[in-house]
Amino acid sequence: MAPDVARYRIVSEQQMKFYYVYVLRNLTKKFIYVGYSEDVKSRLETHNSKQVVSTKAYVPLELIHYEAYRNMTDAKRREKYLKSNKGKTTLMTMLKEYFQES
């Protein structure tokens, strides 16, 4: 592979990196969980296989919302906010129709 092509591929992969804040829900137990991950699909599987202490009593969990950030610090700040009382209110407002349907 030509050096320019290899360099382009490395830069492209780095440019595509995202950090995710996600919201999980167990409908029957009225449980909401906010978390952060670099791989939401894998993290959801980890939660649902009861490997996460804080959520294992609430499986099955479904992904109801996620946000993607290019910077880890921004994602962690958003996670912290959504876990706060004001953030929970914001989340309920953002997903108002979803919560009304359920």
| Strand numbers in spatial order across the main sheet | 2-1-3
What distance separates the N and C termini? 53 Å
And the CATH topology? GIY-YIG endonuclease
Fraction in beta strands = 15-25%
Q: Mean of the pLDDT scores? A: 91
Unreliable stretches (pLDDT < 50, length at least 5) are: none
The topology string of helices and strands comes to: HEEHEHHH
Largest sheet: 3 strands, antiparallel
- Assigned CATH architecture: 3-Layer(aba) Sandwich
Shape: elongated
**How helical, in percent, are the residues?**
40-55%
Number of strands: 3
- The number of helices is 5
User: What radius of gyration results from the CA coordinates?
Assistant: 17 Å
Tell me the count of domains: 1
Outline of this structure?
By secondary structure, the chain is α+β, with helices and mostly antiparallel strands. The protein is built from five helices and three strands; from the N terminus they run αββαβααα. The chain has one domain (3-101): 3-Layer(aba) Sandwich (GIY-YIG endonuclease).
